[in-house]
Structure formats: structure tokens, C-alpha cells
Amino acid sequence: MNNLQLSRSNLNRFAHWGPFLSIVIYKFITLTTLYFTELWWPCFGSLGGFLNNALFLTLFVISFSCYLKSVIAGPGFLPLKWKPINLEEDEQYLQFCRICDGYKAPRVHHCHKCNRCVLKMDHHCPWLNTCVGYSNHPSFVIFIFISIIASIQSSILLLKTLLLVLAQYGHRVLIYFPLKLTLLWITAFGLAVCLILTLSLLLYIQLKYVLKNCTNIEDWIVGKAISRREQDPSLPPFIYPYNLGPINNIKTFFSKGDGIHWPVREECGEYDLTIEQLEQKLIKESWKQPMKVIKNYNGRWFPLVFGLCVCCQIPWTDETRMPLNIGDVIQVTRFRKYWMYGHKNLSNGTRLRGWFPKQCVETLSTSSKKDK
Ligand SMILES: [Zn+2]
Ligand SMILES: [Zn+2]
């Protein structure tokens, strides 16, 4: 029953604009390419035509099944209420997640979109409508790689179609190309080129992570660890514990462990990264600024009531917007010209986070003076 519920909730991930648009775009490019190629290089007209179609469809099937696997398998979540075996000894090295009511194992991060602690979390991907993490990271990288090859083949075939159409001017018309087909061609070719460019950049970043055995979040943590030591050379050096050399890193990336325990370098300990995270968290806590809400905000993305500037300069991220009520106290951690990001503590011990217009709050000290 549990498995049935799990697979049903995993399939629910498709009921979102991300997977819907991904599948529509992917199908559109594939079918359009097949249609145009059939006009001048029919599948059953020659051996070359057949092999070309077979290669294109094989790439499509592999990449699409990797995409489906990435969505359905998901990243892998840490069990709720998880705690280490040696709790008394190890709890000092681990962060606690109030929402999942458990400790965060090494390489685990809580995703506010998935609302769960994610094993070896890389990032939350809106196109998958779930996180990329321990379970689906390999299929995600293979999906990107094969999709680039399929998009290159698609754009070459579409370009060849255009060249044939241009070459037939003044000659016998072989391919009829009315306006509707021209628009179809432009859209498919534009999308294929966009996919090649964006996915190539993504693949480059992901391959760097695979070779270093790190994730997007860990790369960020390591960057902060290095800059901390540049500012304060008295700190002990930080060695990223999971970098076991390129060959072992690739093996680790594709191997199946439990997603909780990871091999580390000889000179490092199991909790080196989590200890660094705890230290960075303490510094972050000291930066946050408490502010008092002076105007209500309903959590809309384009709150016209606060003026055009606020609506035109919204933070372009899929992070949540936080509704505010007068009198709330917000711990602000990020500042933009017209928006702020922060959290408020709820009575059940959890935190609500999100963006809100800057003019809704003022610093606590100012508001308390006014109150007097
Ligand atoms: Zn959690
Ligand atoms: Zn997520």
C-alpha cells in the first residue's frame, strides 16, 4: 500500500507546468524533425533514410526514458525522524530539520518545494517538478547528454531541409513550403538551438560536479569555506572530504549506496562537511536582521498595490512569496532594492520563508521608537 501511495505521489509530479512544457517541447521538436526529414529523406526510401530515423528515434527513446526516470524515481528522501546510530556522539555535528523532525545526514538538505530532506541534494528542478539528488542524478546527467546529441541531429536535419528549399528556387519544386510550415520550421529550429546551448552549459556544470564528486549546493558551501579562510587565515584548512580523485568520483556517482553514508578521503572525517555547514550557519544567523511588518501583504507575485517598480523588479526565482500580517516579526536574510527575503517563526516550531515587498517592513528598533 505504501509503495502504491509512493508511486502515485511520484506520478503526481507530472501535474505541473514544468514536466508538461518539457514533454510538449520535446515531442514538438521530435515530430517536426521527423515530418520535415520525411519530405526529402523518407524512412523507407533508402538504407540511409532508415538508419537516420532509427538513430534519431533511439536517441529520443533513451533520453525520454531517462527524463521519465528522473521525475518518477525522484531524488531519494531521508526517512522522516532520521537520527544517527550513535546519536549522543554524533548529534553535535548534525543540523536538525524541524519540518522532517529528524537530523540531516551528511550531504542532505531540506527542499522547501518538495518539503522533505533530500539525499545528496543538487538542486530543485522545476522542469522535473522535483529535486535532482542521490537517486536520479545519474539519469538526469545521461538525459542532458543524450538530449544534446538528439538536438544537434534535429537541427542538422532541419537546416538541411531549409537548404533544399532554398536550392529549389528557379527549379522544379520538390518540397512545398507554405507559411504555416515556415513558422513550424522556425519554432522547431529555434527550440532545438536553444536546447543545445542551455543543455550544453548545464552538462558542462554537471560534469564538473561529477568529476569533483560534489553537488551544486556543496560547491557553494566549499566556495564559502575557502573565502572564510581567505578572510581569516587562522582557521584550520578545509579539505572537501568527498573528492576521491576523478575515477573514484565517477564510480561513486554511478554506484548505489544507501544515500546516507559516503566514502571520504583518508585525511577527512565523516562529518567534516556538516561541521563546516554548522559554522557557516552560525555566521549567517548573526547577519540576519529582525524587522517588524507595518503593511499587510497577500503573497501575490505582482502586488500592484505597492507600485509599478515593485511589480517590475520582482525576484526572478521560483522561491515562495511570504504573506505578511501587520505586527509579524521577520528575520530578514536577503535584501534587494524593492524586495526582501526572510523567515518568520510559526507557533508549531517551523519557519515560513519567502520574498515580500521591502516597504512592508521596518527595522525593529525604528518601529519600537515610534510605538513609544
Ligand atoms: Zn527536512
Ligand atoms: Zn525539491
UniProtKB/TrEMBL annotation:
GO-annotated molecular function: protein-cysteine S-palmitoyltransferase activity
Keywords assigned by UniProt, alphabetized: Acyltransferase, Membrane, SH3 domain, Transferase, Transmembrane, Transmembrane helix
Membrane topology: Multi-pass membrane protein
Regions that span the bilayer: 20-41, 53-72, 140-169, 181-205
Top-level taxon: Eukaryota
Domain remarks in the Swiss-Prot or TrEMBL record: The DHHC domain is required for palmitoyltransferase activity.
Protein name in the entry: Palmitoyltransferase
